[in-house]
Design a protein that fits this description.
Layout (H helix, E strand, L loop, with lengths): L1 E4 L2 E4 L4 H12 L4 H10 L7 H25 L14 H26 L3 H4 L9 H29 L3 H12 L6 H19 L12 H18 L1 H17 L13
Antiparallel strand pairs: 1-2
Membrane topology: Multi-pass membrane protein
Keywords: Cell membrane, Membrane, Transmembrane, Transmembrane helix
Organism: Klebsiella variicola
């Protein structure tokens, strides 16, 4: 998901890095040939050989380094499902912060050297420019939410029976005191907020159709996380976040005046 800022493309949510990193986490070295082919057929398509090689290294360097570091610091249970509290600090560092930093630094280097210009449109000229900061946020959010989702989808594709185990884990995390009415109320509020956000702005729109409603999503999702558990809410939060960011133009007003 991207937008235009001062005539330049700025990514708001960047998922390719999370997908490549998830493939490395799941398949290890065996994923590299598939990653190379996938990048050549998508992001590097239409580029010169030099630019295509630059794109490959742009993705492979942070993913291989972070995958290797994660395996060193988590040698035994590195492939367990996301949601393990003990592994959370390692995953936040090796699967979100560090790959985003390395990817952004390589983007800045490519910006100065003029390599793979299609990809480096996401960065700014200076490391602390508005475009660079927005890109850094897009990379971190993409890795934070995209890696668990991509990893989960890979496990299902590899072994469809993983769904059974996942459902059992979700049930264990749900508060046993929860009643059906609470689930219905939570889902209804979430759908209502999404409806207000995704409704196109017009002259009759109120403040609830703007980014004001976006701030109300966090307590609703926090409510769901506390009552229904991390595993359930992580599957809901990522698609919601993707939809909200992708359709950002529907709740961000051109001028700050509301009815």
């Amino acid at each position: 998901t991207y937008t235009m800022l001062n005539g330049h493309m700025v990514f708001l949510y960047y998922l390719p890095l999370a997908l490549v990193l998830s493939l490395m986490m799941f398949f290890g070295w065996a994923a590299i040939p598939g990653i190379i082919i996938g990048l050549l057929l998508t992001l590097a398509r239409g580029m010169t050989p030099e630019q295509a090689i630059g794109v490959l290294f742009h993705f492979l360097i942070p993913c291989v380094l972070c995958w290797g570091g994660y395996r060193i610091f988590v040698p035994r249970r590195q492939q367990v499902s996301h949601g393990n509290v003990k592994l959370m600090p390692h995953r936040l560092f090796w699967q979100m912060l560090l790959p985003s930093v390395i990817f952004l630094i390589l983007s800045q280097i490519a910006e100065y050297l003029g390599l793979h210009p299609r990809t480096t449109e996401m960065t700014g000229i200076t490391p602390f420019s508005l475009r660079s900061l927005i890109t850094f946020q897009a990379l971190m959010v993409g890795c934070l939410t995209g890696v668990p989702l991509c990893y989960f989808l890979l496990r299902i594709i590899r072994n469809p029976f993983h769904v059974r185990g996942f459902i059992s884990q979700v049930r264990l995390q749900i508060d046993p005191k929860i009643k059906t009415i609470e689930i219905i109320c939570w889902a209804a509020i979430l759908i209502l907020l999404l409806g207000l956000l995704l409704m196109p702005l017009n002259d009759t729109s109120t403040i609830f159709s703007t980014n004001y409603t976006l701030s109300l999503l966090m307590p609703v999702m926090l409510w769901g996380a506390m009552r229904f558990g991390y595993r359930f809410i992580s599957l809901i939060w990522t698609p919601v976040l993707i939809a909200v960011i992708h359709f950002h133009y529907r709740y961000l007003p051109v001028y700050p005046s509301y009815n």
